[in-house]
Amino acid sequence: MPIIVAQSVGKTYKSGKLQVPALRNVSFSVEPGEFVAVVGPSGSGKSTLFYILGGLTAATSGSVLIDGTDFARLSDAERTKMRRAKIGFVFQRFNLLPTLSAMGNIEIAHDIANLGRDKKIELDKPLLEHLSGLLGISGRLDHRPNELSGGEQQRVAIARALITRPSIVLADEPTGNLDTKNSDAVLNMLRTSSRELHQTVLMITHNPEAAQVADRILTMRDGEITGIAAGRGIAATV
Ligand code: ADP
Ligand code: ADP
């Protein structure tokens, strides 16, 4: 059974009297463990799709099923709970809390995920060591975000998204602010998350080269999916 199903999803923003169409009739599904990239020019609807799939914005029409559950049938509280328990987010601007160390940022993500679980779990220390090693941030965890480079901050943000073992990882332009070396580290980690940790990854990017790391690439234009192609499945410079 697919873990993500989008059926004829439409979204129109209302801005005063103006109606801004952002998504039209978007349908696709993603299998568990698959890595899907969504590419398209600015304004094509990628971020809107990301927010809808993450349960952060409601679709105007159509439906989104996550693990067989239709978002529209959940209350706000239930949707928040599901998001906390099942989805890990990575953003272009890292979104780390500035007053906490890298470790504090990772711990708080774990605590928030526990709020979404009926049965609380302990912070997975072996997983944290594994992720920190793969991401090259083991020696940086006691530093605050302003003491870390952009690349390090994004690698911390990836550890924060993966520490809760989310079944779905949603990444919105995760390499947008990074140099090639850090970009490849992030892409390889997302690849590992899908292939070895069996997490489903959906990554939005405007960079066609970055998208090649995915199993499948959806192309968007003017709010619609205009193409589906196979990716190479490896980061560009590996
Ligand atoms: P992308 O992520 O591909 O750049 P977006 O999803 O951000 O695309 O935008 C799709 C369309 O929706 C664009 O025309 C954009 O101007 C519009 N849009 C996005 N967010 C809003 C909003 N909050 N209010 C009104 N229009 C919006
Ligand atoms: P990376 O390759 O991880 O992006 P850089 O080569 O940019 O790292 O930086 C090397 C070191 O310099 C990093 O380990 C980081 O501690 C420090 N550094 C880089 N940028 C900043 C910054 N804006 N503020 C504080 N320290 C920084």
UniProtKB/TrEMBL annotation:
InterPro entries: AAA+_ATPase, ABC_transporter-like_ATP-bd, ABC_transporter-like_CS, ABC_transpr_LolD-like, MacB-like_ATP-bd, P-loop_NTPase. It comes from Granulicella pectinivorans. Belongs to the ABC transporter superfamily. Macrolide exporter (TC 3.A.1.122) family. Keywords: ATP-binding, Nucleotide-binding, Transport. Residues 4-238 form the ABC transporter domain. SUPFAM superfamilies: P-loop containing nucleoside triphosphate hydrolases (SSF52540). This is Putative ABC transport system ATP-binding protein. It comes from the Bacteria. The keyword Nucleotide-binding applies. One of its GO terms (cellular component) is plasma membrane. GO terms for molecular function: ATP binding; ATP hydrolysis activity; transmembrane transporter activity. The keyword Transport applies. Transmembrane segments: none annotated.
